[in-house]
């Protein structure tokens, strides 16, 4: 693999890791991990439950994802001297949560392996950037928005049964976006926990504090599941996660060759998929925390924030059962509201990008509505058909 191009690598070669690391970079790594878990761990929990996973298997999913993100973030950052954080595919988890019910978990694991194989091949062969050219950003954004639509709607539908908790959390999010944007979602979680305790809805008894034991699930392969789950998961992860992740790196002044990064995340997913590691990709939002001047004034030393984040991810992964136990102790309304609020920013950005250009709006609206409808045709979920229909409309309009 060709190594990514580093930012003035000669400067970083003059110092060692222990000279580069600082309190600020360790803090940035911790904040990035905290944001990553509090913003979307609830969605991972829902995705695993939708696959029919047992409590032990759900813990194994969190173990695999934590270990995978930790090893790749630590290894890539240390190897290439850039803050290269990885993450689980949050839109991918949202897609799985709404499309896995009724599919045997063994077939779901097979689809994860298929998606990971496609990602690895894209990285190894250098097809990543060329393949994404065939999927306009407007279609990818509409696909993402359609997947997240039901999570946003669920936030407000929960208010019909219990209005105080989700409404208070929403108010905390609005205030947080104004006053402390990078900590808005952790603030929402803290607010929800406080209200749940006040209402007597939180029961933390029996939460395990022991390391997680990973659970291996043998994959099974079904052509229908590979098409309806594996291909959309691959497209969603590549178009809505890896592309923004690489873009964030470049915006911060780093110029990586993306092919090796995609190869490593895909290969790691291949190894961890049987344990629940459904999709790893380059991080965008959490990575941005480690790329700014608050992490370190010297951009050549910010890679240590990525290393610190990797260590924290590994610790979180080792205690995946504890994370699962905590979310089991939370009321369902809190988890649903947290997932919906955490995705509001991504949903709004997706909608804005999807309809930004007038020539793409017809295709984008078809993709968005067909994906968001949640329908299944010929046993294949709406996300796949939304993508296909959007590309057909786009091609028809161009020919016209």
From TrEMBL:
It comes from the Bacteria. The chain crosses the membrane at residues 21-48, 60-78, 108-128, 134-157, 178-198, 218-240, 261-285, 305-327, 334-355, 375-394. Keywords: Membrane, Transmembrane, Transmembrane helix. Pfam families: BenE (PF03594). The keyword Membrane applies. InterPro entries: Benzoate_Transporter. The keyword Methyltransferase does not apply. GO terms for cellular component: plasma membrane. GO terms for molecular function: benzoate transmembrane transporter activity. NCBIfam families: benE. This is Benzoate/H(+) symporter BenE family transporter. It comes from Vreelandella alkaliphila. The lineage of its organism: Bacteria, Pseudomonadati, Pseudomonadota, Gammaproteobacteria, Oceanospirillales. The gene is benE.
